[in-house]
Amino acid sequence: MVAQRNPLYSAISLVGVFIALACLYLTLAAPFIAAVQVIVYAGAIMVLVVFVIMLLNVEEEERRPLRMRYLVPAAIVLAAILVAEASFILFYVQTNPATPRTPLNTDVGLTSQIGSGLFTRYLLPFEITSVLLLMAIVGAMSLARRGQLLSPQARVIPGSQVLPMDVVDPRRVGDATEVETDTTDEAARVMGYGDVLRKRDDEEV
Amino acid sequence: MTEFAIEATAFALQNVPAPQVQGVELSWYLALSAALFTIGVVGVIIKRNVISMFMCIELMLNAVNLTLVAFSSYFRDVTGQLFVFIVMTVAAAEAAVGLGIIIAIFRNRESLDVDDANILKL
Fold first, then answer.
1. Residue of B nearest to A10 (CA)
2. Which residues of A touch B111 (CB under 8 A)?
3. Which ipTM did the prediction report?
4. Which of A59, A63, B40, B70 has the fewest Cβ atoms surrounding its Cβ within 10 A?
């Protein structure tokens, strides 16, 4: 996944990793987590990522000259030492900090257990999570939209959208003049705010 | 760290069989999780594309999730899986906000290279 230069390929291999992890969760007797893994990660998040990759038309990462080439053998040696230590611990050291408290066939990973845990003992983290999701929604919306509410080229469907005057101009409270136009620019010109928009566009440019 | 090493060596000398989760030892899950996390860290370090770095962060979150589920299944305690649920929610929120930020950066810079976005403003 890391070795790919095209982000789309690494996204697809990441989906494979997520599905393999879901299978591991199934073997660990956690079916709910496995289902959520497939639905949320492999389903929702990766679809979002692939959508962004397609939307932004990402080109492949170009190869760059390696800086500090002399550090490569040192890095290889250090990595080999680390792998040797880890494999030594893995193969020769057996730790037994505690024994399983209950017999093997339990209903720990089932949905009802997780639900009762979430809504009784861990209710506060659950509620905090909901607030976090709300913040994420608001933040994503405010990040994704452009500077103003409607872009000058936005199509305004005549008759279906009425902009009251007091939205455009705070001084004219209660003035709900109805204007039928095709675009926001035209509406602004009809209402007499064309020069204001033009000046704002010039400042943006 | 030394205490842990001494304890581990003592257990190794006693030659106690390691506890198992349905035939597979816990340490294998932990090793796989460590490997996944390392791959994620390496990706964040060596990648310059923002989306690739983002996906590597997701990979690290998943490695931690694997650890939590393995311990939860091993100790027969549902708390770890609850925490995995919350981590997944946080990851979803992070995905939404992060991709919004990526789109904003691309809109302003016409590039996804992190080296181009180095002035702490959009």
1. B52
2. none
3. 0.79
4. A63
